[in-house]
User: Which sequence fits this backbone?
């Protein structure tokens, strides 16, 4: 099944070898920071691990293998609201499959979903039933990856959601499901709010709610979750303030130094995942480097961080906290997710019809726990097909 709309242009991922020659040269010439002995990750990214990762990026990593894996799927670009948006399209062989748009966040990319696309589109080959099949659509957020850098102000979650609704229309999908985490959770929620006529249901692995003063009816576990979130906001959310106020300044360093880019991004993969202190307990080194390579090859790290600026400076999805999402909503609660609001609060914002407490996993659910992720997505959407 191939898109018929003439505005959807076929696209093949093919990064010029000169990009990788330049990457290797820059990595070899890195001016490394010092680090106090024995501090590990206490002050930020650990010097020893980042050096080890960058050595592997320079000497061992095979982008061409990653490129082949990505290109096994059809890729397209299309212009929506003045922005060229990239998406991966993996239709099921079953024509009656449910279309599903999956949205990533920062500092992720479509690489997060490489291990779940095939089980979602071909469930019979992966422990599921024919009725579980999806036509999978994975867009790169505007300003991320192969969607190219944003060129105008105002590309916040609402504008992105409207663009993805147009994308699904261009693909000919009159009724579809949506899934997301991180920024993708906001985009997915807004799809359920703004395109409810066409959205069968939404599935979230990071759902947001408004904090409430009265916490007397919360369970001890819910109170502990809120306390942990408060600690996270105090000690781990500095990146939000930098990216939300001065993303362009930050971009000079991240665009110029692949080691700096690696440290900035991989520290988040470690801190937000269920990895017991080491990122490669949750992710393969190849997947981490492929995600980094997408940012490096496309030069989109600066535009990706601008999304925080847009939200702080007026593009925040206020309607998401003033209107209730009425379409059926499934929420998968992973234990190491950085945002874990009480169920009662979330039920005020969403029509929650499915709730799962996952045994393990964190913020990058599809990448950390692909089997758990796929099974929960299947279970929820069985109820709305």
Assistant:
């Amino acid at each position: 099944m191939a898109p018929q709309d003439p505005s959807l242009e076929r696209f093949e991922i093919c990064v010029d070898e000169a990009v990788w020659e330049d990457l290797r040269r820059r990595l070899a010439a890195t001016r490394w920071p010092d680090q106090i002995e024995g501090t590990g990750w206490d002050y930020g990214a650990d010097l020893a691990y980042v050096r080890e990762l960058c050595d592997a990026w320079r000497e061992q990593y095979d982008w061409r293998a990653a490129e082949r894996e990505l290109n096994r799927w059809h890729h397209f670009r299309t212009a929506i609201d003045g922005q060229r948006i990239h998406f991966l399209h993996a239709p099921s062989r079953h024509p009656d499959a449910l279309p599903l748009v999956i949205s990533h966040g920062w500092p992720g990319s479509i690489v997060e979903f490489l291990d779940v696309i095939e089980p979602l589109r071909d469930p019979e080959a992966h422990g599921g039933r024919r009725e579980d099949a999806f036509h999978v659509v994975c867009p790169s957020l505007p300003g991320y990856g192969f969607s190219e850098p944003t060129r105008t102000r105002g590309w916040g979650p609402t504008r992105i959601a409207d663009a993805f609704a147009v994308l699904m229309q261009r693909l000919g999908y009159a009724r579809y499901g949506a899934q997301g985490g991180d920024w993708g959770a906001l985009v997915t929620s807004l799809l359920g709010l703004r395109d409810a006529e066409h959205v069968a249901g939404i599935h979230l692995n990071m759902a947001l709610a408004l904090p409430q003063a009265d916490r007397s009816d919360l369970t001890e576990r819910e109170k502990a979750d809120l306390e942990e979130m408060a600690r996270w906001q105090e000690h781990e959310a500095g990146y939000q303030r930098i990216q939300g106020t001065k993303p362009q300044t930050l971009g000079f360093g991240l665009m110029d130094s692949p080691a700096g880019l690696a440290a900035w991004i991989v520290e988040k993969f470690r801190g937000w995942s269920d990895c017991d202190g080491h990122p490669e307990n949750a992710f393969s080194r190849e997947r981490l480097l492929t995600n980094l390579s997408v940012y490096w090859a496309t030069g989109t790290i600066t535009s990706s961080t601008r999304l925080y600026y847009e939200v702080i400076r007026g593009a925040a999805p206020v309607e998401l906290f003033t209107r209730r999402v009425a379409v059926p909503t499934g929420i998968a609660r992973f234990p190491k997710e950085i945002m874990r609001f009480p169920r009662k609060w979330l039920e005020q914002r969403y029509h929650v019809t499915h709730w799962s407490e996952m045994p393990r996993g964190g913020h990058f659910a599809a990448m950390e726990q692909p089997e758990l992720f796929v099974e929960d997505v299947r279970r929820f959407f069985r109820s709305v097909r």
Q: What stands out?
A: The mean pLDDT is 96.
